[in-house]
Amino acid sequence: MARMKFLCDADRCIECNACVTACKNENEVPWGINRRRVVTINDGKPGERSVSMACMHCTDAPCAAVCPVTCIFSTDDGVVLHDKDLCIGCGYCFYACPFGAPQYPKLSNFGSRGKMDKCTYCAGGGGSEVPGSIEEYRKYGANRMLQGKLPLCAEMCSTKSLLAGDGEMIAQIYKDRVKARGYSSGSWGWLTAYHEGITT
Fold first, then answer.
1. Taking a C-beta distance cutoff of 8 angstroms, is the pair 125, 132 a contact?
2. Is this structure's pTM higher than 0.90?
3. Which pLDDT tens digit goes with each residue over 135-153?
4. 162 neighbors 121 (Cβ within 8 angstroms)
5. Domain chopping of the chain, boundaries
């Protein structure tokens, strides 16, 4: 079965933030929360790169591993969802996630920040709500996967920097792009790190 993944091609990202806006609008994300954000490295300097970041829907998600109430889980498609009815707002997932995906919906004292919120890959929620229902939408946002659509952030990317879909397919698309650019395996630092060549 396909495992859904995101991949951001840093050579194509132009830091337009269309992905961020699309996510906020499609899911009516509350003020102060960004399920997706664009991170720029070496801003204004040679070698500047921008990457669109959100939950990467890890195969072995560290957020799920540390959750004391097991409200975070992976679906058969590899999408990492959470059940807001089970969530106690402890924040362990926030500290475990290397991408900073789980977030508190409110800025206040600990214990009154609410239940965690994160990217759902536009797959609805992990709760008991009927998929595609208005209740699911209010709690988790849009369920585009139910309609056979990809997450809106990836669909709105004007340069197709942000890819979403079957992990094997987007890996092949990225590999083809790298070949077309004429980069060798050294573009990923492999030759520098391991002093050996690999074929592409």
1. no
2. no
3. 999 999 999 999 999 999 9
4. no
5. 4-60+117-194
